[in-house]
Amino acid sequence: MNDDRCGTVTVPEAGKALGLTRHGAYAAAARGEIPTMRFGRLLRVSKAWLRSRLEPIPLDRIERSANERSESNG
């Protein structure tokens, strides 16, 4: 995500930010898990979408989710 003037990144760049390999990123894009925009042969991912996936999850939300799972199991 080098150029902040551009609102998109490549699929491999998005995958790298998400901890995926190049192949994994393209596979996730093919499944629709990474939304892409096509410009001719160029496939791009919105930086806004990527940032929304990389935002930290508030700790209270994680704890609440864990509590809900433990209550449903027991």
Quick rundown:
The protein is of the alpha+beta class and 74 residues long. It contains 4 helices and 3 strands.
Count of individual domains = 1
H and E string: EHHEEHH
Strand order of the largest sheet: 1-3-2
Number of strands: 3
- Shape estimate: elongated
| Poorly predicted parts | none
Mean pLDDT: 85
Broad structural category:
alpha+beta
Q: What features would you highlight for this structure?
A:
74 residues; alpha+beta; three-stranded antiparallel beta sheet; 4 helices; 15% strand
Tell me about this structure.
- With 74 residues, this protein is α+β, with helices and mostly antiparallel strands.
- It has one domain.
- The protein is built from four helices and three strands.
- The protein has helices spanning 11-17, 22-31, 47-54, 59-73, and strands spanning 8-10, 37-39, 42-46.
- It has a three-stranded antiparallel β-sheet.
- A hairpin with a 2-residue loop joins strand 2 and strand 3 (42-46).
- Helix 1 packs across helix 2 (22-31).
- The longest helix is centred in the last third of the chain and has 15 residues, at 59-73.
- The mean pLDDT is 85.
